[in-house]
Design a protein that fits this description.
The complex is a heterodimer of chains A (about 290) and B (about 325).
Chain A: H1 6-31, H2 47-54, H3 56-89, H4 96-108, H5 111-129, H6 137-162, H7 165-173, H8 178-207, H9 210-215, H10 223-231, H11 237-288
Chain B: H1 7-27, H2 29-36, H3 41-67, E1 83-85, E2 91-93, H4 98-105, H5 107-139, H6 143-158, H7 161-172, H8 177-184, H9 198-222, H10 227-234, H11 239-250, H12 252-267, H13 271-276, H14 284-294, H15 298-331
Antiparallel strand pairs in B: 1-2
The chains are: A mainly alpha (about 290), B mainly alpha (about 325).
């Protein structure tokens, strides 16, 4: 017996997941509400979706946010992978402690501090070297890369810590240069971690209000900034519609990822089985010979 | 993405190309010169993120510190320089402690700091009380359901944080979901004021940060050696005794990691008190925001940030130590 009473564990899960999911379900349900009063049911309607897509400000901000998130996530994956490699594979080197400190601190750093400090940096840089000229998309992207790469680093580092270093050593023993080892051995193995790191960075960037508010300039309002100024004035059904679209995208993405991963797992299992069988055959033939 | 994937040919092509390029560099005089400076491939890999983080993470704090010592002025940027040329030869450094004196003298800031720490601590405890049983139940369920449950914990995290906080406005407000339900059941006649109270802020923080508590706890509880519990049972421990004497002490690293992951960002939280809390509620993240955006007093905002950072330096260092210990353990 693994300890704990089954009914207690079931209760903890049911209540916990109810707490996590009731707000999300309520967002979705009331996005189909005819009534403007978000929480009073007035019949089924999809008119808020139409209203949402007709809102040029929201659509424009959404496109800007998607662009920023795609660029920031890609750069964050590159930098986060380099950091993860350095921390997990290079052993002790000068500056390792500082690097690991700088790479993990953004995980917990309150966003108001990150936002303020980056803004002051950009202002100072502009005074000193004239770059960046004003603030906007570029400064938001830099800010998002910096805080999202911390999350990628953690994901990559823990993936690298899990897998067997002897695979890389074997490739190196067979004469592969470090770059070749990385691209042919390490990268394919940690690829799922990079993918989830990219998605994580993308989501974080798409979702960030506080840091973007500090480093954005006039005319570069991201989606969270527009949403925040709208919901500050109270609930509005088109925001529910926006949330529902987002939730649908995430749900579909998760379903697709699940199917792909289970398929890959099957292929991997079959490969492993074939390898084992071949191994057995070889042992048998060696015994005979 | 193993041997059968299509990424290998592409990867191979890239690597061959890179190898040629690197080889060309390595064999040229440039290569030997670079090596003499200690610029090997490894150093290059480590130095790119290193310099990025120096420039965009560490240096900004120095600038915040500098500006926290400057005078506010109505200009762009709205502060006076700390370092300036007094005459042609004399570099003048003018440190102005007035911003900090202001923070200490004005009760508002003390109250905001203490209140933020209190709110964050209570929310962390609530997260632990809800998250621990969940993490425990997930870790002890069978492997197939375990993955599904874990996914369900992470899933809300992928949808927008802002919109999930927004969802609580609809649930908690006076004609919101809870009040409407209670009134239609006849349990109450008047709506209960829940939105714009401290209660709503606690709900918001616990709700948003719960996955951050569950995940490290789960990671810890999942790898626990269950034979220890059998041994405890054989030696006459009741289930709750063996939980208190074996499971709980062993899961302490997970508890600490989860608590820090919730507590530190919650202290500086802005969005949740701004949307769900009373407009007059004092939270330091909100104070900083107001100083910066509404009062446009950058030096005071910087001083607030530095003071907040000083409060958080010890928990952040604890967090990093836990993080390092965790990755060292995973390597073993």
């Amino acid at each position: 017996m693994s300890g704990g009473r089954p009914w207690f564990r079931t209760l903890a899960l049911v209540l916990g997941f109810a707490f996590l999911y009731i707000p999300i379900v309520s967002l979705v349900v009331f996005s189909f509400n005819e009534s403007r009063l978000v929480t009073v049911w007035g019949g089924f309607s999809t008119k808020w979706y139409g209203a949402l897509l007709a809102n040029k400000q929201i659509v424009g901000a959404a496109l800007l946010s998607l662009k920023i998130a795609a660029i920031a996530a890609t750069a964050a994956v590159v930098l986060g992978t380099l950091t993860g490699m350095a921390l997990a594979r290079f052993g002790p080197f000068r500056g390792r402690t500082l690097l690991s400190g700088m790479a993990t601190a953004p995980l917990v750093m309150p966003e108001v501090i990150t936002g303020l400090s980056l803004l002051l940096l950009f202002v100072t840089l502009e005074q000193l070297i004239g770059w960046p000229q004003g603030r906007g998309m570029t400064t938001i992207i830099i800010a998002h890369i910096t805080f999202a790469m911390a999350f990628v680093t953690v994901v990559v580092q823990s993936r690298l810590a899990q897998f067997d270093e002897s695979l890389e050593e074997a490739a190196q023993d067979l004469g592969a240069r470090p770059a070749k080892v990385f691209f042919l051995v390490t990268l394919p193995i940690i690829f799922p971690a990079l993918l989830s790191g990219w998605l994580l960075a993308f989501t974080l960037s798409l979702d960030d209000l506080v840091i973007a508010s500090f480093v954005a300039g006039p005319g570069s309002s991201t989606l969270p900034m527009v949403v925040f100024s709208k919901v500050r004035l109270g609930v509005s059904p088109d925001i529910n519609a926006l949330a529902t679209i987002l939730i649908a995208i995430v749900a579909i993405g998760v379903a697709v990822a699940g199917v792909v991963m289970s398929k890959q797992q099957k292929i991997r299992d079959r490969d492993a089985q074939m390898a084992l069988a071949a191994n057995q055959q070889m042992i048998d033939s060696l015994k005979k010979g | 993405m193993t041997a059968s994937g299509s990424a290998v040919p592409l990867g191979q092509r890239i690597s061959v190309w890179l190898e040629h390029a690197l080889g060309a560099v390595a064999h040229s005089t440039v290569g030997t010169r670079l090596k003499r400076w200690g610029l090997t491939g490894k150093a290059l890999v480590a130095s790119i993120p290193f310099f990025w983080l120096m420039l965009f993470f560490l240096v900004p704090f120095v600038i915040v510190l500098k500006i926290s010592f400057s005078d506010a002025q109505i200009a762009m940027p709205p502060y006076q320089p700390v370092v300036s040329w007094a005459s042609e030869r004399v570099l003048q450094i003018k440190l102005n402690f007035a911003n900090y004196a202001f923070l200490i003298e004005d009760n508002l800031y003390w109250k905001a700091y203490l209140n933020s720490i209190w709110v964050a601590a209570v929310s962390t405890l609530l997260c632990l009380l809800i998250g621990y049983p969940m993490a425990y139940a997930i870790a002890r369920s069978n492997p197939a359901t375990r993955n599904v449950l874990l996914l369900l914990v992470i899933l809300p995290f992928w949808t927008s944080f802002l919109l999930r906080v927004y969802a609580w406005i609809g649930i908690l407000k006076n004609n919101g979901l809870i009040n409407n339900t209670l009134m239609s059941l006849g349990l109450i006649d008047q709506p209960i004021q829940m939105l714009q109270t401290d209660f709503a802020v606690y709900v918001g923080i616990v709700y948003s940060y719960l996955p951050f508590m569950i995940l490290p706890l789960y990671a810890n509880l999942e790898k626990m050696d269950l034979t220890l519990l059998e041994a405890a049972a054989d030696l006459g421990c009741r289930p709750w005794e063996s939980f208190l004497k074996v499971t709980l002490p062993l899961s302490l690293p997970g508890v600490i990691a989860g608590c820090l992951l919730v507590f530190i960002p919650a202290v500086g939280e802005f969005v949740i008190p701004a949307l769900l809390g009373d407009p007059g509620m004092l939270m330091i993240g909100k104070v900083l925001w107001t100083e910066f955006f509404n009062n446009r007093d950058w030096p005071v905002a910087s001083a607030v940030a530095i003071a907040l950072l000083l409060f958080l330096v010890i928990p952040i260092m604890f967090f990093q130590r836990a993080q390092d210990a965790g990755s060292a353990e995973a390597r073993r």
